[in-house]
Specification:
Layout: H1 13-18, H2 24-39, H3 49-62, H4 77-82, H5 91-116, H6 124-134, H7 137-145, H8 149-164, H9 168-181, H10 189-194, H11 198-217, H12 224-234, H13 248-251, H14 259-283, H15 287-305, H16 318-323, H17 335-341, H18 360-380, E1 388-391, E2 394-397
Antiparallel strand pairs: 1-2
Helix pairs in contact: 2-6, 5-7, 5-8, 8-9, 8-15, 9-11, 14-15, 14-18, 15-18, 17-18
Length: 418
Amino acid sequence: MSAPDEGPPGRDGFARWITGRASWPVLSAALLVYVLSAGRMLGVHRAGMDNAVVVRAARALLDGGSPYADKRFLYLPGAVFAALPQAPLSNATLGRVVPFATAALVLAGVLLALRIFDVRADSRLAAALTAGLGLFLPFQSIVHLGNWTAASAVAFPAALLLARHGRWTAAGVTVGAAIALKPMLVPLLLLFLLARRWRALAWAAVLPALVSLAAALAMPRPGLFLTKTLPFLLHGQDDYARPFDASWSAVLPRLGVPRPLAFTLAAAAAVAVLAVARLRWRRGGHEALRLVECGSLLMLAAFLVSRPSFLHYALVIVPALVASVVVRGAAVRSVWFWMALLPQLADVAWPELGSARRHAFKDVMMFTGMAAVLALAAWRRAPETARGVTVSGVTYSLSSDPGPRNPSGMPRDPSEMR
């Protein structure tokens, strides 16, 4: 009889148990919950409405019009061409396909998030995370809307996984490609800055600029993006979308805080979180955990201050954060992290906050709570002290998490040599 798989060395008993293989009934039940949660959106009025806006823009382009004539089209020019394959499909067909396609993208992001920590796809953690997302209101929201944030939910863990294995340039290309569709991952550019990965930063910044420029030159009246769409975004959209905005600068005025003061408080909170992200990076430690926690702090800083900041944005960072539970000392092992997510359980009624137009109060609690837990964990974390051994005049790191190695045992990245 073969010995049970205990996973990578250094994991404690809880991590070894939760990363162990789950039974097929458990995996099947988790997947069923996930699929049924996505399927319930088929009967919802206007399912896939955000995706429909992008498809409508693509159809306008095919008809010779400007996609930005529609004030609801708020994406970069590259998204228009990415939506062209959907243009010939009927609205009825898209209404049946888009919820499941969106759910599949989120699930792909889950699998990539697990791989960051070398967790198998048939583990107990994978089953718990899949079933949990099925009951998670941000997941139900993104599936209902068919929002293209799902692309960022894949690109965020994909980029961190590549960086974890020393493939920083590929990580930069991944982030740049995602930004070309929707500028959700712009805060992640600061991760390349903190890591001093200039080539990756250049790819992440230049690629979406080139794609957007090429796409804009291929469409009529691209200047409407600057004269119509951008001002609409900078004003927090309109009265229809504003109640769903969970940023501090949108929620605090609804509580009686003057708008200038609300923006000042939001900006101060974002700057504080950015400072903590820098601190978390400098504290070092387990490389995968450092990447995930620092990247999540950068994204949360934007969620607190940017307008708009919607519920489903949480799906960009939550799967990777939950996957980090296998690492001793991870912030998500705090009960307060889970308390921040508790209000987002589906079908749990919260007095006075049950309506769609008041949901933002729960959402801002989630974003603020996650940021606070990660910030406190970063502040309490002791700095990693590197140990080394000198061979032929060159010092090699002997830290607790030296990173990926090539078959000869030497670091893949020359920058790992001290």
